[in-house]
Please model this.
Amino acid sequence: RKTTLAAWLRCLCLVDLSAKVQQSNCLGGLQRLSAEAGGEIASHSGAGTTNYSSNSQCYWQLDAPPGKRVVVRFTYMDLEPPNGIVTLYDGLTTSSIIIVVSAKDSVGYESPKFVSSANILTVHFYSSSQYARKGFRLEYNATVSANSSACGPVTFEDASNSSGTIVSHPGYDQHSLYATNMSCNWTLPSVSGKFYQLYIGSVSLGNGDCLSVNQGTPAAWKGGSLNVNLCGWKAVTDMTL
Model:
């Protein structure tokens, strides 16, 4: 049988479609998945188009290699709280909750990224016997953990030390995560007759982490947009008269 070019191209398309990201649906019980390989978790095979089954309960254990951390992000969410919820746990046990997620309306839903503190993150999906909806989808992968707990530097851009930047940790510009259990303090030099304006260029902090600014005199804030990412935070300083 002679194979035409059109038939060959159609075959290639079929192969490409079958090579999509692996999806693991709720099958009951526990599924153990490799975060390094990446993939997608879903409430059921028809997530986004059909309703999930009532009385569902599933766990997914996402494992990353030692030295890496697990990153997850919801790409679709349509659950009926409190009858359908997804809980992310930090590690193997259910004692450390990262977040409990439940949303009625998926229109305009935008999920932040959630990151484990070590190399394991557990996902739990529960649905009751009432109000089933179209479920959820969640992407997962592994990311490089911080190499050290060192704090980032203060870098001045001129000889008078009147402007510069502060980054949370080395590797910020390479999109690495900051380490756990960090405590950093930066003191900017006092210059007679001038005060500081502080612009927070981008910020992304884990649950329970915080950034505070303390000054002896009232602070002047320079406006700007807030860019959220997974790389800690970056502050830009500018000294004015």
Observations:
- The chain has a mean pLDDT of 76.
